[in-house]
Design brief:
The complex is a heterodimer.
Chain A: H1 8-18, H2 49-60, H3 84-90, H4 93-96, H5 108-125, E1 129-130, H6 137-152, E2 156-159, H7 165-178, E3 181-183, H8 195-200, E4 206-212, H9 224-232, E5 236-241, E6 260-264, E7 280-284, E8 298-302, E9 308-312, H10 319-322, H11 335-372, E10 378-379, E11 387-391, H12 397-406, E12 413-414, H13 415-418, E13 428-432, H14 439-455
Helix pairs in contact in A: 3-11, 5-11, 6-7, 11-14
Chain B: H1 39-42, H2 79-90, H3 113-119, H4 122-125, H5 137-154, E1 158-160, H6 166-183, E2 190-194, H7 200-207, E3 211-215, H8 225-231, E4 236-242, H9 254-263, E5 267-271, E6 291-293, E7 314-316, E8 328-331, E9 337-340, H10 345-348, H11 362-398, E10 416-418, H12 429-438, E11 445-446, E12 456-458, H13 466-485, H14 504-509
Parallel strand pairs in B: 2-3, 2-4, 4-5, 5-6
Antiparallel strand pairs in B: 1-7, 6-7, 8-9, 10-12, 11-12
Helix pairs in contact in B: 3-11, 5-11, 6-7, 11-13, 12-13
Amino acid sequence: MRYLPLTDTDRAAMLEKIGAASVDDLFVDVPEVARLDGPIAGLPMHASEMAVERHMKALAAKNLVAGDVPFFLGAGAYRHHVPASVDTIIQRGEFLTAYTPYQPEIAQGTLQMLFEFQTQVARLYGCAVANASLYDGSTACWEAVAMATRVTRRKRAVLSGALHPHYAQVVKTMAHFTGDEIADAQPAIQPEPDLEGLIARIDEDTACVVVQYPDILGRISDLTPVAEAAHAKGALLVVVNTEPVALGAIRSPGEMGADIVVGEGQSLGVGLQFGGPYLGLFAVRDPKHVRQMPGRLCGETVDAEGKRGFVLTLSTREQHIRREKATSNICTNSGLCALAFSVHMTLLGERGLRELAAENHRLACRAADRLAQVPGVEVLNNAFFNEFTLMLGGKPARQIVRDLAERGVLGGVSLGRLYPGVAALEHALLVAVTETTTEEDIDVLARELEASIKESA
Amino acid sequence: MNAPNTSGWKPEMTPADGMHNGPATTTGNRALMLEEPLLFEIGRADVTGVDLPAVDADAPTRLGGLARDEAIGLVGLTEPETVRHYTRLSRQNYGIDLGFFPLGSCTMKHNPRLNEKIARLPGFADIHPLAPQNAVQGALEVIHQLGEWLCKLTGMPAVAMSPKAGAHGELCGILAIRAAHEARGDAREVVLVPESAHGTNPATAAFANYRVEDIPATPEGRVDVAALKARLGPDVAAVMITNPNTCGLFEKDFREIADAVHAAGGYVYCDGANFNAIVGKVRPGDLGVDAMHINLHKTFSTPHGGGGPGSGPVVLSEALAPFAPLPFVRKDDGGTFYLVEEEDREERGPSFGRMTAFHGQMGMFTRALTYMLSHGADGLKQVAEDAVLNANYILRSMEDILHAPFAASGPCMHEALFGDKDFTEGLTTLDVAKGLIDEGYHPMTVYFPLVVHGAMLVEPTETESKAAIDQFITALRAVVERALAGDEGLKQAPYYAPRRRLDETAAARKPKLTFEA
């Protein structure tokens, strides 16, 4: 029992101090019928570090590691190179084993880091204020809709058809219970997103319009007209970004008039981790909306000697003070992932992020050109950052993806998996390319894709 | 180490004005106590710590005319500067690795490093959530195995793995309850929550569009069963009860409450924040629970990380299991693991929907499973016993000088609750907390639960030695004695932390939330 410091002698001495004959006497308030008399059946007994490691390694070995094969998956989770120092820093015990900074005098490390993180996110998004993070991009997306309903006192949200379908599912699930009305749509398979169609769906009851940028098909377009149309009807524009690296190359959502910008921060520092933990980013363009924001906020102040310091602030919005009147029930942030993001962003800086974005885009352009040469394959997008949609000439993408995996290539995400049952999307494959992709990987994908398509004939 | 001070130094050896008030330094540093500027004061736009190809301004792009022309406003540091910046920041933090962290209700136990190592195996860390399922069988098996452990430990038939934290788990449970009522056309509107509950409970119920009503506590610190029963009726959808409760006591009438709630057509939500007190000793399923979240970052030792990420799987009864959120992992007859998602219309049944984009906190699942395998069924039982033993030892070592409102109610569970009743007028629980900081401790939880005036909730956990606890008791007694004696100096504490008391009112009055030059 390597994690339990008490010895039997200690236990006996402590029981004597307490005045109890045995430790079971401390559980007298548990009804007798519910008391277990031994270890729970059907579970193994304790095991050595070595034995546990063996067990877990065997499970890990059953997975196909992204870094071991040509890898092209994205759709809300991207594989980027994370500098070695990021993981070293987040494993420092003072960060790893700290709690929420409720005692600010001995939590300035976490607090100053969060203040810097908030500044990085706000600037990246072109916003005034960002919070200290939420669970992930999808839950941040719902929080944005909920906030828009509070700000506008309206109950209808219009979702772009090209919003990540899992994000849309989260929003619809929550709205079902809160009584908000969600107008969603399927993405139209066309080179440009249908912004006019989206604008036509905004009305006087609309609290917000939710648009993904770049969208689920990898397309990018100027959202200024959507912002103007939304504002003309008194609605807010919520922009969702699932690839923060993109904002090193393209205009920020705030610049285009977004009122709330949310996203997934996983790309920087966090890694793939089979979907979690990830990092929900949340920012507002207009500081007047700060008091309607969900989640923790870190603010600057001074201590009793006049030294600059940081505290969690505006907590009167939060559940531990406001209880049922809180802006959200959230009781945490994604602190360590925010630290990883912030360290990675610090290592990159303005220059590094722009170079990283340029390299992603360069390789994505290369891949799009190469894959377009595969017979029967077309690139759908006019514009993209590091992810684009391939049309497979009538071949079912899910089957192709599974077949590619058998061939040792993780070739992309089939839209058929993301939009089950939608015939128009069954033949589309979403391909993501990052700085970790090599020219050789691209050639292997092109070759294997061609073979797979031929064989599925 | 948390052991008696063996340096040879004694308190009376320090001059009255305190040794820390030595000569001023030019830098503002005090030896190992190092000040650190903000990133935006030391970084530069043209500096980077990552080697990448320079941007080729003439390269063709397909950005649709949206290329960024304005500066983002970020700054960078090289690797050595980055490592030093964050290392210096880290030293202004208190963590479990540094010392005793008795934060009640938060279960700040040791975070085993094997967990960290396992979570970083490429087979877990470097796999994509949407990889084809034939490529991630090991990941699905981890989720499945962890789910089985949670079901067996709680005596519950089903578990929803995707909730991202405790409060997200609460939401999952309450949404399952709402969906179950809706499925039978029963539009109940009220959720009953004891006044001692965590703030997340009423916030969660309100989020799900329920009206929240308080249930009072008895003088002995438990739910007032008579009041609760009197309030049950056809409009009550559920009760949310924390067990062991936030006063550190086991709700001995839980089964009776559950039976009454069920008889009235409601469901029982158990807040599992305090599961560490009973893991391996009591199965909530035997007490009539319908839904309970489990904070993997409390009971199962995944790191708190300075405020997340957590993980909050929810165990569910037969009645609620069909409504569990997507996706979930199943195993077919051939031993292959598969995901049930939106498209699997038959298998998904009446699931209430989706709570997050992917499968939950995989990085926490691998850590928690590693921890469970390390302890085994026998070790987890010992965890609960030692956690409860340590808390009772503190309760009985303090009750003679510190008001312990429920000490007469019997043994506490894994946390000991105290109040400020006997402090000299003008001295508060906050002062005691700040005094403990000077003694080298992270304070206990203060001003929670709300049912005790000036509450101090001490949760030692099982990963402290007797020597560490004895030293803490000595320190806490000394600070409490100062509060009883009216030592005004305590009002200025902490003296020795990286910062003195911070002005939270000023921070909120004119919020400054980002850096401006």
